[in-house]
Amino acid sequence: MRIEIPEVDPATKEQPDVMTVTKGRLANETMCQLFFDGPVWDGNLASKTGRDVLVDLGLAERGAHGLQWLTRKGVERAIVLGWHRYKESGPRMSAYEAWKRMF
Question: What is the pLDDT of residues 83-101, one digit of tens each?
């Protein structure tokens, strides 16, 4: 259920587009940050490119004064991925620490 990062096509042996892979990784990292630390101000955001991918997918929104957050759809996706277990367990963990555990 994560944002899919394409792999090598076994039939044609073609490598995926580098920008597609990069945007997928940035979107996953940004979604994690928004889930654990949201809403997040532009200056503290892990990736504006990742945020733009999430906005295009309807998983995040941008608001006034440079804030962005996950939409209901984005939160539901994070819960399906099991991220809530990391958010609710033990001492407060940073988005980066949670991201390292999940990926």
Answer: 777 776 655 556 666 656 6
